């Protein structure tokens, strides 16, 4: 698995477009896939956090169930995840992690919806999550991305586990992202964009691409 992960990390790059107020890190694809797609929107401030956690799981399971309707057979000889149940489990986990992070780290002081978008074409699935983020959150996020791109993912995962064990209040470990990369061999990228000035409103889009 390590050679596969290292090959993915070799494709990590940073694209800085100051004129359009955007920065892209990692494997991020703007061009949409042309087959099936599904979009869900959420208002993070409308529902209490505990209730929202429950809704996250339901939403993740829904898009995973929706996706598997396009795979009528139980096995795919050329796929990396070769059963419908494995595809469903992978998509549900990834979608749930993205939703939890978006709700946990969104800027609670702005009215900005969280958007979850799923795309499917042939054996490729892309999952996007778009949410607001605070200025301080952006810097922490970029620091995590840089460390991920500079590290062996398995070693980085162990370091983050150790940090969590040492500090129970450590909530920025990124273990979900590391699990997505390590366990599902997914490609991942981020786009940061200033969508409003005075006051500044910063949004981040996380993209995960999975081969099924």
TrEMBL record:
It comes from Cyanomargarita calcarea GSE-NOS-MK-12-04C. The keyword ATP-binding applies. Transmembrane segments: none annotated. The keyword ATP-binding applies. It holds the Pfam family DUF6272. InterPro entries: DUF6272, HATPase_C_sf, Slr1658-like. It comes from the Bacteria. One of its GO terms (molecular function) is ATP binding. This is ATP-binding protein. The lineage of its organism: Bacteria, Bacillati, Cyanobacteriota, Cyanophyceae, Nostocales. Keywords: ATP-binding, Nucleotide-binding.
